Amino acid sequence: MTATSLRPAVVCAALLDALDASEGRRRRRKRDTTPDAIGMSLKRELLAQSVDADPDPEAFEAWLLERCLTGAADASMGAVRAMAREVLAEWQFAAASADFRKWLAAGAPSADRGPASRATLAPPPSSQDVDGR
Length: 133
Prior knowledge:
Layout: H1 8-28, H2 34-53, H3 60-69, H4 77-96, H5 98-105, H6 127-131
Helix pairs in contact: 1-2, 1-4, 2-4, 3-4, 4-5
């Protein structure tokens, strides 16, 4: 993975806000969404821990691996690993996609939720920012 200056904690805080929309969709489904709720709970826990710990970008993958190995007592390692992989992929996508960063910074707007809170998600400096072009 390419090193990035985008802090995982910043992205994870914005992703926590985005989970609200997913939760709204889940509640409206007519099927049993218990497995969805369990996965969302694990993901929410990983995101909150990421915000609290604020791991360095270069160490984020290893930090997530450690969460898998010492994961929740009431969840399987496989379930925690699946959510950790999702968190890692979303952070990597945020680092690579200006559009995704903008969507997160706007509060992850969705028709499934009301007005979103704004996250402070500054994009990493580009060569244009540094060079002034």
